[in-house]
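Structural prep section.
Before we set up the soaks we want a predicted structure of the protein with nicotinamide-adenine-dinucleotide in place, mainly to decide which crystallisation condition to try first. Input record follows.
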Amino acid sequence: MTLSNLGKPTAETCILVTGGAGYIGSHTCVELLNGGYKVVVLDDLSNSSAVCLERVRKITACEPEQLIFFEGSILDEALLNHIFTQHTIDAIIHFAGYKAVGESTEKPLEYYWNNFAGTLVLCKVAREHQVNNLVFSSSATVYGDPETIPLSEDCPKGTPTNPYGHTKSMIEQVLFDLHASDPHGCIVLLRYFNPIGAHVSGLIGEDPKGIPNNLVPYVAQVAVGKREHVGVFGDDYPTTDGTGVRDYIHVVDLARGHVKALEWMANTDKACVEVFNLGTGTGSSVLEVIKAYEQACGKPIPYRVQPRRAGDIAVSYASCEKALRVLGWEASFDLVRMCEDSWRWQSNNPDGYR
Ligand code: NAD
Ligand code: UD1
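Run finished without errors. Recording the C-alpha cells verbatim:
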C-alpha cells in the first residue's frame, strides 16, 4: 500500500478502526465518514455497544457500505486476515485496548495480553498484507511524572506507574523498532492528554461501566443525580488552588486530530514514524472543571476533598506546537463547551447506551 492511497479521500479510501465502537473511536468514525472515508470497524464490544455505531450512522447519514462492522478481537489472527483480504485497507487507526488504570494493576496479564499482544498480532497481520500506515492511541501517561511543563514530544519518557501505562510505552517502542527494521509507510503515535466531552448531537459520548475512574464522567454522574458528590483527590498540590491540573481536550477535537494525521501521511513523501501530543496547551484544575460543569448544567455540583490518589501527578499539560506546525491541527473547543457537550450526552442518556 502506498501513501498516495491516502490522498484526497474517495468513497474507496478505507480506514480500519480498531476499537471503533468505543468513546474516542466512535467520534473518530464520525469525523472520518464526514471526511469522505470508508470505515471498517473491528471491536469486540468488551467496553462498548453496537448501539453506538448505529448512532454514528444516524449522525453521519452514511450509506450502509461506508461503515462496516466486524465484532471480534485484534487477537484473532484469522479474523484479521479475513478483514485484510476482503477490504483494501489504506491505513489503520488503532484504538482497541483496555484502559482502566486501576484494573490494570489488578489484572496485569489481561492488560499485557489484550493491549500489547493484541497490537503485535495486528501489526503482524497488517505487515503480511502490506498495510504499513498506522495511527496509534498513545497517552500522556508515557511521560510519567514530568520535570518540565508544558510537555513537548521531545521530553524524555518517564516510568509509568501501572501496567496500562507500560503497555502504551512498550507499544510505542515496538512501533519505532518495526519502522526501523522495515521503513515502509507512516506510523503516527498520538499522545492524548485528557479527552472529555461528547458529540454535539448528544447521541454518542463516554459510557463508563460501573463507578467512573476519571474526573469528568464522575462529575457528570453527580450532575445527573446518580452520585452524591465528587471526591476531589487532594487539595495540597503546588497549583493555584491546590488541586490537580490537567489538559482537558474535547473528544471531537481529538477525533479531528486523527483525520489530520491521515491527511499529513498522504502528503508526506517519505516513510516515517512521528509522535504528536494532542491537547489544548492549557491546564485546568479539578475545581475549575467542577465550576465549568456547574455553568454548563446550571446546578451546583457538591464535592468533598479527599486524600490524594496514589500515582497521581500534580500538573500535566501539553505543548501542541508540533501538531499545529506539522499537522495543521489545533484544538478549538474550550472547557465550558466540553462540559456543555458532556452534559447534553449525560442528561439525554443517563444510563449510557443501555
Ligand atoms: P474505550 O474503552 O471506549 O474504547 C476502546 C474500544 O476497544 C472499546 O470499544 C472496546 O470494546 C474495544 N476493545 C478492547 N479490547 C479489544 C480487542 N482485543 N479487540 C477489539 N476491540 C477491543 O476507550 P477510549 O477512551 O475510546 O480509548 C481508546 C484508546 O485511546 C485506548 O487505546 C486508550 O488506551 C487510549 N487512550 C484513552 C484515553 C482516555 O482518557 N480515554 C487517554 C489516552 C489514551
Ligand atoms: C488517568 C490515568 C491515565 C490515563 C487517563 C485516561 C491515573 C493515575 N492516570 O489520568 O493514566 O491515561 O486517566 O484514562 O489514573 N480526580 C478527582 N476525583 C475523581 C477523579 C479524578 O479529583 O473522582 C482528579 C485527579 O486527581 C486528577 C484529575 O482529577 O487531578 C484528572 O483525573 P482523571 O480524569 O482520572 O485523569 P488522569 O489522572 O489525568
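Observations: Residues 18-19, 21-25, 42-48, 73-75, 95-99, 114, 118, 137, 139, 192, 195 surround nicotinamide-adenine-dinucleotide (ligand 1) (CB under 6 Å).
Flagged for discussion at group meeting.
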